[in-house]
């Protein structure tokens, strides 16, 4: 991949810029849906060369191509609503049913179905879990056309309501511009929808930024201070998202500004600032982008080169390109049998049922002394019923060396070494109490003592 | 053979479909039959009871089905006396008295140490067939032998006394016999005997009886310590509590050490102990050890009994009982050499049976190999016997015949033309094939001194897949090639270890250590120069990398997979080096990580052209994985931790 990445890195660090781009193009913001990568495409750069002149009415290139003058007002005057956060299995009929229960019968639903042709990019948004090959699944959103604008506006008031027939889900509604958009790319579709909603929220005085790649120990106050130091009294609040189950930071958060100017400045000026040893990554808010993954697929870039008019891909790439050059702050892994540098116990799986302990010792003995004996766990009814074709009949074993070095050498030399035609599989393990392992046999021994049946004496009626 | 057919027979096969529909619980009980669970057996019994209540006059098909069920259970567990009783009763209901008597007789034969069954049988016999005095007498004598010495055998003695009094025969001798036996109710017999004697005014005898009685009382008191602790004296499928087993063992120890002069009593206690403890190997071993210690004289019928006893033990004991079976094999081998000709056929057939059984139940290597080795030893002694005084010509011809026999057996096995009538061929399997092949090679090479043929065997058998992983086979191959000092072959053999010949590490280490010394002592410069080419480099170029026997073979120690890279590729394939496990593990075996790499080389940075043009920007591989945690190869969590959840 990395020629482009490297190139941009190079530019950033040296101050050398491509003659085509006349400003810090990789920090450009355009139309509320992300960045653009100017340096590869002059046409686009020229069109939006200054972030302060950004046109809030613009949606995105595709929309520009299809309907050139879509304004916010125009959006408001439509009778279409965007409906997001759908279950992927829902169909048009499901949506219709839902609205029926909400009292809106006269609607048309345009379900955004998955396009099977572009299956590599679905990781872009929320709907990473879409089975790409399953064309029957939707993309998680749809457009609903009401008969009048008024009805649509009324329906929009229901935003955030629980859906009656699916109580675990809430309605997610917004003004929508169209299902008439031709989605050649499913990623693109998602981006359209989500960014549109962001655009809306931005217009209603919600100047938030997404801050990603936070070190796990970054607190809300630290995040607040970082922004507040730079722009005093301009920050409304800062939030760090916490995983509800583990109580650990999810590694991203949101900062809310009082106006869009500061918001845009912060995105440029604080981009890549180090916070607790890790460079933060600032991005505009968006449902689809809260958990942005490192976006480094070679294939993706290839696609972009093929279709240069879909620049927003590159925009996203650029943000992620920057993150690749951050100093890796690796956390110390949890101490367990795999990571303990003093662990000398090898766990051996896939031992042929015909091999017994003394056979196996011939393989493991030469590497060094070990504690106790090598153990092979016997299955509950061991000696009979062996079927070599059955994978369940393989045995497992444990050997605990005295020295780590011996254990390592044994593992390197004997991993995948076939015994009786079956390659051994060796990994680090822990000593196992064989008795505990064979719980089943123990249960067998605890069987209640039941007396043999006896018969009343009168069975010999003939005597 | 009939047993096997019986076990696999479906008892319901002959029944009417309508009948099966009407009695679902009976069918369910039969299909749920589990020969290891007493509850399941009881369920089927109850089902049979209900069935017979419903059909008071069952038709032949039902009768047949019920009979088969009983036979199936009882052929497997003849010690379930309750089932025998029930079976007898049902037979009486189905047929007539004669059939039921026949069943009872079968019962006493299958379970000869049961007082209950014997009493029932004798009672039926004496009541219904009082005229068959001869038969009754022989049966009584037999029963006396089998159960007369048992501690609780008073019902039996009562029965006999009753019978004898009825037939008005003299009971004094019998009384003398009884009062010497330590019985639970010994006092009863002494008093009744004394009464009888006083009636006949035999005062001398009364004194004698008193003396015997006193002696017997002491004995009964002694054994009562153990007898009182016996809670379960019948057979059951559930394992016996260890306290009970300990008590039996203590009891037997006491008798065998303190009262070794009463073999009849000891035998009877052993027989009794083997009813509840018939799955306990320890007691079986004890019994037969004791039995052998008292029977020192060689007598064919006793030998026969001994073998029978052993065979019964082998049949009854679970497959985990190794000690008892090996004891049997040892005994057979020892007796074979010591006994005279007549017993040998018996011993050898029994031996073959035993070995076959062992090979069948133990598919593990070691026991298999051990039993096969024993078999070959016995085979050689029995069929190809040679002594010091045998003329050398005859000796040679016998050895040749032996070799021939082995060879045909092996070849038949390999080419899948096994003739099951020949014992050896029947015994061979993949696990013990190498034992026979090694034996064949050993005799050809060392006894017949036929080096050419030996080499042929090696070439032939080394292609067989089970022999490729056999330590024994390759060990003898190595010895053979060492004896011929064929360094070309030895080099190739050593080079293949661990890569083509997947043998244990310790074996490979030993061979290499030995070969290093052997090579330095015996080789010369010409051998060294030619040896590296390989024996038949013309036709298997690809497979064989011949290692340098002085420099390189040492690398194989503790690293069997080590091999020199194939010479034709020249240098290490750099483009793929990063894919190797060694690179990915980076000295931490088990933890795989993809570290980023710069992929475009800067090897020519010293050259002039480098100065003239701008260097290319570095390109990367795996850069995106820089923050990734290592990938653990963790079978332990997969198997143990996850399976417990």
From TrEMBL, chain A:
Residue spans of biased composition, Low complexity class: 13-26, 63-73
GO molecular function: mRNA binding
Compositional bias (Polar residues): 1-12
UniProt KW RNA-binding keyword: yes
Annotated region (Disordered), positions in chain: 1-73
One Pfam entry name: RRM_1
Annotated keywords: Repeat, RNA-binding
Xref: InterPro entries: Nucleotide-bd_a/b_plait_sf (IPR012677), RBD_domain_sf (IPR035979), RBM42_RBP45_47-like (IPR050825), RRM_dom (IPR000504)
Organism domain of life: Eukaryota
Positions of the RRM domain: 79-178, 207-287, 344-431
PROSITE patterns found in the cross-reference section: RRM
Gene3D superfamilies: 3.30.70.330
GO cellular component, one term: cytosol
GO biological process: mRNA splice site recognition
PANTHER family (UniProt xref): TRNA SELENOCYSTEINE 1-ASSOCIATED PROTEIN 1-RELATED (PTHR47640:SF10), TRNA SELENOCYSTEINE 1-ASSOCIATED PROTEIN 1-RELATED-RELATED (PTHR47640)
Protein's recorded name: Similar to Saccharomyces cerevisiae YHR086W NAM8 RNA binding protein, component of the U1 snRNP protein
Species whose genome carries this gene: Maudiozyma saulgeensis
Lineage of source species: Eukaryota, Fungi, Dikarya, Ascomycota, Saccharomycotina
Automatic annotation (TrEMBL), chain B:
Keyword Protein biosynthesis: no
Molecular function as annotated in GO: pre-mRNA 5'-splice site binding
Alphabetical UniProt keywords: mRNA processing, mRNA splicing, Nucleus, Repeat
UniProt cross-references to PANTHER family, sorted A to Z: PRE-MRNA PROCESSING PROTEIN PRP39-RELATED, PRE-MRNA-PROCESSING FACTOR 39
Listed GO biological process terms: mRNA 5'-splice site recognition
Domain of life per record: Eukaryota
Keyword Nucleus attributed: yes
Leader peptide range in chain numbering: none
Gene3D superfamilies per the UniProt record, alphabetical: Tetratricopeptide repeat domain (1.25.40.10)
Stored Pfam families: HAT_PRP39_C (PF23241), HAT_PRP39_N (PF23240)
Stated family: Belongs to the PRP39 family.
Subcellular location: Nucleus
Main location: nucleus
Listed InterPro entries: HAT, HAT_PRP39_C, TPR-like_helical_dom_sf
CC terms in the record's Gene Ontology section: commitment complex; U1 snRNP; U2-type prespliceosome
Name under which the protein is recorded: Similar to Saccharomyces cerevisiae YML046W PRP39 U1 snRNP protein involved in splicing, contains multiple tetriatricopeptide repeats
